[in-house]
Design goal:
10 strands, five-stranded parallel beta sheet, Cobalt-precorrin-4 Transmethylase, domain 1, alpha/beta, Methyltransferase, Cobalt-precorrin-4 Transmethylase, Domain 2, 36% helix
């Protein structure tokens, strides 16, 4: 038995970002543990069905009660049945659910195969020009302005202290607020990055010091998925 970690496109109409070998493996499976069944069915259908969807198993990961997904996995182990793990978008287990199932597989001695595919975090870091040797992902910051300001200053301090790129994500409708607060709170020579709709038709990536953000024509961020990055060298200088 094998647990395959299957990547899903992170933007609309971006199936081309999934390697052919990953597509073929996914097409050959009929048991899936997923973040959201509707999205997973749509993705698997887009690959070209080998068998009807009705004959496939799709079990959702539930943050509050994951017993069904865990039981499905245990039954698959007993039957020697390969399983695919999918998140809503991107790579399962990285800023997305799925790590619990992978942990079960590791403890059971099941072979775990991560398939190559798009990760918004790595793509944003690659395009940022920030420190790619030392970086940290912080999930979501506070949704309220005063607390967000505090969180951003904390990440700026951590970045300077450890010479480390600090990364986080936010819901699409709060992206503009994040940019506004960053421009208000971060120091002039701190580099701030925004990567929106990565691999999508409206992809937009910008990574420059705060002082340059303030000089540029003001931008209204789209309500699209985004990764944000903060980097401040220990010297306080960009170069």
């Amino acid at each position: 038995m094998t647990l395959y970690l299957i990547p899903v496109p992170i933007a609309e109409n971006a199936l081309h970002t999934i390697p052919p070998y990953a597509v073929e493996i996914a097409r050959g499976l009929d048991c899936f543990i997923v973040e959201r069944a509707k999205t997973a069915r749509h993705f698997i259908k887009s690959l070209g069905l080998v068998k009807p969807l009705q004959e496939m198993t799709f079990v959702e990961i539930d943050e509050k009660d994951n017993s069904e997904a865990e039981e499905t996995f245990r039954e698959a182990v007993k039957a020697g049945r390969d399983v695919g793990l999918l998140s809503e978008a991107g790579c399962p287990g990285v800023a997305d659910p799925g790590a619990g199932i992978v942990s079960m597989a590791q403890l059971a001695g099941v072979k775990v195969v991560p398939l190559v595919g798009p990760s918004s975090l790595l793509l944003a870091l690659m395009a940022s020009g920030m420190n790619g040797q030392r970086f940290a992902f912080n999930g979501y910051l506070s949704p309220k302005r005063p607390e967000l300001a505090r969180d951003l200053r904390r990440l700026e301090s951590l970045s300077q202290q450890h010479d480390q790129t600090q990364m986080f994500i936010e819901t699409p409708y709060r992206s503009q607020m994040v940019l506004e607060v960053a421009l208000e709170q971060l120091q002039a020579d701190t580099v701030f990055g925004v990567a929106q709709d990565i691999t999508g038709a409206e992809e937009w990536i910008r990574s420059i010091p705060i002082r340059e953000w303030k000089k540029a024509t003001p931008r209204q961020l789209e309500k699209a998925p985004a990764v944000f990055l903060v980097y401040r060298r220990s010297s306080g200088k960009l170069i």
